[in-house]
Amino acid sequence: FFSDFASCGSPRPKQAARPPTPLAQSMPIELEAPFWGFMGAAFALVFSNMGAAYGTGKSGIGISTLGVGQPELIMKSIVPVVMAGGVGIYGPLIAVIIA
User: Fold this and answer.
1) Which of the four, 29, 51, 56, 60, has the lowest number of CB atoms within 10 Å?
2) What one-character-per-residue DSSP string does 23-39 give?
3) Mean pLDDT, the chain, as a whole number?
4) What is the greatest pairwise CA distance in the chain?
5) For the whole model, what pTM was predicted?
6) Contact 95/42 with Cβ under 8 angstroms?
């Protein structure tokens, strides 16, 4: 039964096999892409730590000023210092994820 359908249509012409092309030739790759990737990781490190240092300094000045007038509130005002340190942790974390 199926032998009647084997001869239907014209046979396909055989194509010559092409040699495989290397990946570098088959896809255009921008050479500066790794540069911008590592610059992003460096910017994440630098700016997060600069922001954490600025926040720690400003809140330290505030704690010192508060300690002169109302020393009983010093422990309550430690929270901004901890938060600024927490922001500083995210920079290396993002840099590791990017790299």
Assistant:
1) 29
2) HHHHS---TTHHHHHHH
3) 81
4) 103
5) 0.60
6) yes
**Sequence letter at residue 90:** Y
Q: Sort residue 19 into left (φ over 0), alpha (ψ -120 to 50) or beta.
A: beta
Distances (CA, A) of 49 to 64, 78, 92: 22, 19, 9
Residue length of the chain = 99
How far separated are the first and last CA of the chain, in Å rounded?
Answer: 62
The token pair at 21 is 């092309």
Q: Taking a C-beta distance cutoff of 8 angstroms, is the pair 52, 84 a contact?
A: yes
What parts of the chain have a pLDDT lower than 50? none
- Residue 22 tokens, joined: 């290397």
